[in-house]
Amino acid sequence: MVHFNHYLVANSLILAxxxxxxxxCQNITIPVSLTAENAVLNIPAPVDDxxxxxxILTSLKSIRDGAASTPEAATISGQxxxxxxxxxxxxxxxxxxxxxxxxxxxxxxxxxxxxxxxxYSYVNxxxxxxxxxxxxxxxxxxASTIGDPxxxxxxxxxxxxxxxLTLLARGGEIPGLPAAFEKIVHVGHxxxxxxxxxxxxxxxxxxxxxxxxxFSHVSEYQxxxxxxxxxxxxxxxxxxxxxxxxxxxxxxxxxxxxxxxAPGQFDRDVLDAAYANAQPITVGEMATTGQPTMNHxxxxxxxxxxxxxxxxxxxxxxxxxxxxxxxLLSVSEGFYPNTTGFYPxxxxxxxxxxxxxxxxxxxxxxxxxxxxxxxxxx
Length: 378
Description:
single chain, alpha/beta
């Protein structure tokens, strides 16, 4: 059964000239049956911060040396619940649904951030432009089903969950949502972008358009992120006791600032809230998030990332070392040979946590303009 918590949110939003006066939202719990090919990992779940650090150092060495072999795969199946929120404009459901997938360090509130919401809610911005939005806690996190952090909550299961959510929405099979949408587009952030990209790589026709934020196809700087996150055992942190050992979370507020916030581009209240509500990543995810491969999606693709993104640009997306390559995001174009349109956009001055910085309105405007250009606006 799908459980609903209906509410009407009425507010006044001023964000890059937009005004949202009211919206209709409902929190929903969606039961799904998932099957995925996961990796067989011979990794014990670290039970304290010393073991977490050992795991990180070993992982970094493996990244440096290159994977020695492809892990054996195993099929896993199970019943899960996905916690989500569906919002539509006060005038009613849109013809276009945006499915929003958060990255590491957050749950679905990343898209509708409660602190100074009038400045940072991507959902409000999308609703004001006539879209409906479905944003969810990735399987294993937030209010969705928690799982084994080594063998279960990996890239394979996460992508399977996003696929099932998309198919249910496209088929009009989620109670409380419209019977069908004319078009469905996907927006991801960070790890959520990686999973969204993998989804469309595996199923090129599943999405009408895709925006990957906080992302690039350059992997050499990802170890910087591992180090800067200062990961520790989530189970020992107040408020995160529900997560078993093997879930890892940023160890302090400095780590959150280092990874997500560019210098001088954020409100300290937002940083405080991001740290206070930080969500974890699993050992299984870290071990199985692979390198992007060729994606034969035909719909339009945008990659939108902050200039100072530490994970995907090494603090400067313009530092390509080649005058013929305008940004590191331009490298991504070669991975989408069949797309009807590719758009790389560097958000000047921004960091990895695009939705939580002063430039959020610029980011949101770029996304909406991209969708409109390719006929994906309501």
